[in-house]
């Protein structure tokens, strides 16, 4: 889900109904379907108002202008393998100010960056096969990318949150990494994360059915 500030509305990936819907932010009683028949898990919006949708059924990211029925493929769409122009089970997508997109490539255990108009992506986190070393990810989910290009990713299968600096060859653990569990220093298949203005990190701790808050240093 994202907030469209221009229209003061919520744009929601309605996964099970295979659609994207828009609801008024204030006192909304009726929503509208703006994109139908799409295998949507994650979405985001750029500064120009274009939607980017991670389509897990087609292993691609599509860009839509709101109101259009057809999107444009901007990443993937070449089969479900691990080539640099391919994705496998796309989950979440982030777009930066230069319109580069970052994709959690779930089954390939990596985060990919596609520069605007590129024909293939760049591995910016993971990509060394599934595993739990600092060079690896296991089923990455939601990401945050800051202005310096540092990536914070929910490394779901490893029950941890990782930080990857720009051009780094390995990441660092900032939360979790103490095995799967329900203690305060443990996670169980985290799927979502977000920071507030004070650098507090909020983690959607899926299998523990809770949201955890951590004080972090993002630098």
UniProtKB/TrEMBL annotation:
NHL repeats lie at residues 186-217. InterPro entries: 6-blade_b-propeller_TolB-like, NHL_repeat. The keyword Glycoprotein applies. The keyword Signal applies. Signal peptide: none annotated. PROSITE patterns: NHL (PS51125). Pfam families: NHL. One of its GO terms (cellular component) is extracellular region. PANTHER family: PEPTIDYL-GLYCINE ALPHA-AMIDATING MONOOXYGENASE, SMP-30_GLUCONOLACTONASE_LRE-LIKE REGION DOMAIN-CONTAINING PROTEIN. This is Uncharacterized protein. It comes from Rotaria sordida.
């Amino acid at each position: 889900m994202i907030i469209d500030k221009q229209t003061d509305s919520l744009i929601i990936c309605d996964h099970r109904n295979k659609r994207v819907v828009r609801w008024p932010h204030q006192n909304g009683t009726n929503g509208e379907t703006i994109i139908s028949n799409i295998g949507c898990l994650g979405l985001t919006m750029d500064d120009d108002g274009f939607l980017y949708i991670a389509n897990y059924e087609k292993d691609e990211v599509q860009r839509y202008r709101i109101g259009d029925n057809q999107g444009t493929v901007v990443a993937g769409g070449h089969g479900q393998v691990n080539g640099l122009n391919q994705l496998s089970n796309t989950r979440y997508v982030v777009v930066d100010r230069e319109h580069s997109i970052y994709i959690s490539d779930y089954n390939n255990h990596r985060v990919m960056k596609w520069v605007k108009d590129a024909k293939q992506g760049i591995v910016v986190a993971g990509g060394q096969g599934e595993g739990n070393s600092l060079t690896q990810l296991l089923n990455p989910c939601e990401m945050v990318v800051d202005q310096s290009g540092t990536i914070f990713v929910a490394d779901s299968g490893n029950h941890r949150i990782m930080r990857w600096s720009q051009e780094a060859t390995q990441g660092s653990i900032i939360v979790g990494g103490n095995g799967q569990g329900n203690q305060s220093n443990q996670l169980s298949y985290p799927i979502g994360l977000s920071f507030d203005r004070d650098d507090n990190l909020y983690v959607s701790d899926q299998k523990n059915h809770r949201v955890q808050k951590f004080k972090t240093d993002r630098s």
